[in-house]
């Protein structure tokens, strides 16, 4: 983002002139655009780029087909929602991977309690300590932190 600020200061970008602003978005945000391209789902980028072209040109016209073939550098307005949805998708995956073992523990504990004839005992009283022991024994915080940080590790380089 520092590059965008330097470009903003050097090129004297004005918000009143649409061509100046468009040039700033295209040239001043190259580092940010590269980051978004790297961490966005390619299918989502293509979807938003196609939606933007259809909105701009109307239905499938020759200009839309030509622009689809010539897309080397996707628009920042296609990259931003694609990146946001990619991150949301990753968050749901992480949540599912965290939730699944705990559901399995709940199912096993409730099945064992029913098999022993202990229907009146709450499975939560047995399964919660088991979940905590499982999380601590597998070093859950370290695994979770590493998984979150390592996906962005090459940003610093």
Could you characterize what this model shows?
The chain has 157 residues and is mainly alpha-helical. The protein has one domain. Helices cover 78% and strands 0% of the residues. The protein contains 8 helices and no strands. The chain has helices at 2-11, 18-28, 30-39, 42-57, 62-70, 76-115, 123-137, 140-150. The chain is elongated, with a radius of gyration of 25 Å. The protein starts with a helix and ends in a 7-residue tail after the last helix. 7% of the residues are buried. The model has no long low-confidence stretch (mean pLDDT 82).
Counting structural domains, the number is: 1
Detail the poorly predicted runs. none
Cα radius of gyration in angstroms: 25 Å
Provide the structure class: mainly alpha
Main beta sheet: strand number and arrangement? none
Beta-strand residue fraction: under 5%
- Overall mean pLDDT score? 82
Order of secondary-structure elements: HHHHHHHH
Number of helices: 8
Helix coverage percent of residues? over 70%
Q: Which term fits the overall shape?
A: elongated
Distance between the termini: 16 Å
Number of beta-strand segments: 0
Pfam families: FliP
Transmembrane segments: 96-120, 126-144
InterPro entries: T3SS_IM_P
Family: Belongs to the FliP/MopC/SpaP family.
SSE inventory with pairings:
Layout: H1 2-11, H2 18-28, H3 30-39, H4 42-57, H5 62-70, H6 76-115, H7 123-137, H8 140-150
């Amino acid at each position: 983002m520092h590059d965008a600020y330097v470009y903003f200061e050097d090129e004297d970008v004005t918000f009143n002139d649409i061509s100046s602003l468009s040039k700033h978005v295209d040239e001043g945000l190259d580092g940010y655009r590269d980051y978004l391209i790297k961490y966005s789902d390619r299918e989502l980028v293509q979807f938003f780029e196609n939606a933007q072209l259809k909105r701009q040109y109307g239905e499938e016209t020759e200009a839309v087909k030509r622009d689809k073939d010539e897309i080397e550098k996707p628009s920042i307005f296609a990259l931003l929602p694609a990146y946001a949805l990619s991150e949301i998708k990753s968050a749901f995956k992480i949540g599912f991977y965290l939730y699944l073992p705990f559901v399995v523990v709940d199912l096993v504990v409730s099945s064992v309690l029913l098999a022993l004839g202990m229907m009146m005992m709450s499975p939560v009283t047995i399964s919660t300590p088991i979940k905590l022991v499982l999380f601590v024994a597998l070093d859950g915080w370290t695994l979770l932190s590493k998984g979150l940080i390592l996906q962005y590790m090459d940003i610093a380089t």
